[in-house]
C-alpha cells in the first residue's frame, strides 16, 4: 500500500512538471520559463480571451490529426466542456507549433506526453498559460487527452498527454493546489494502437530528463480535419 501511494505521488509530482513551458512526467522539478510559471491571474485571463476570440466559434467536437513517426492519431476535442482548452490547442495546431515536436516522455501504464520539445529536448517558446478547466466532468481515462502543466493549477500552455490507463488520481477534486487536477479536453478516436506503440518504445535519460524515447517519436504534422 505504501508502495502504491508512493508511486502515485511520484507520478503526480512528475505531471506537475509537465506543461506550460514545463518538461515532464518524472520526479524532477519542472523547468519552465519564469514568464510561464509566474503568470498573474490577469495575464491568464487575458490569454483565455485571446484564444477564444482567435478561434472564432469553436463548438462541438472538432477533430485533429496528429501524423507521427509511428503512425496517425485522430483526436476528437470537446469544445462544449473545455472551450478555452480546445481553443488554445487549436490555435497551436493551426499555427504549426506542434509540427516537428516530439513525444518526449513516455511511461508504460501511465501516459505519453508531447507538444513542447524537439528531438534534442529543446523547449519551444509558448504563449501565456490558460485557465485550468479540469472541473468539466471529463475524466483521465484510457485514450483521453489532457493538458500538462507545472505545479501551478493554471499554468498549461502547449504540452499535452494521452492517458494509456485510467488515471483517476489526475481528475479534479477541488480548487486547491493539490486538488485541481489535469484538464481533459478530448479523446483518441482512431490510432490508439499508435499510442500503445509509442508508450512501448525503449526510453533513456537525456539532458536531465527521464523516460525519453531512445529514438525520437516525432509529430511530423498536426492539422484540423473537421
Any idea what the CATH architecture is?
Answer: Beta Barrel
CATH class: Mainly Beta
Radius of gyration: 16 Å
Query: Helical proportion?
Result: 10-25%
Under CATH, the topology is which?
Cyclophilin
Number of domains: 1
Order of helices and strands: HEEHHEEHEEEEEEHEEE
How is the biggest beta sheet arranged? 9 strands, antiparallel
Q: Compute the number of strand runs.
A: 13
Beta-strand content: 25-35%
- What value does the average pLDDT take? 83
Q: Quick one: CATH superfamily?
A: Cyclophilin-like
Q: Would you tell me the structural class of the helices and strands?
A: alpha+beta
| Widest beta sheet: strand line-up | 5-13-3-4-10-8-9-7-6
Top keywords for this entry?
226 residues; alpha+beta; Cyclophilin; nine-stranded antiparallel sheet; two-stranded antiparallel ribbon; 5 helices; 23% helix
Topology record:
Elements: H1 2-15, E1 17-19, E2 22-24, H2 34-37, H3 41-54, E3 63-68, E4 71-77, H4 83-94, E5 101-102, E6 105-107, E7 111-114, E8 144-147, E9 160-163, E10 184-190, H5 192-199, E11 203-206, E12 209-213, E13 218-224
Antiparallel strand pairs: 1-2, 3-4, 3-13, 4-10, 5-13, 6-7, 7-9, 8-9, 8-10, 11-12
Helix pairs in contact: 3-4
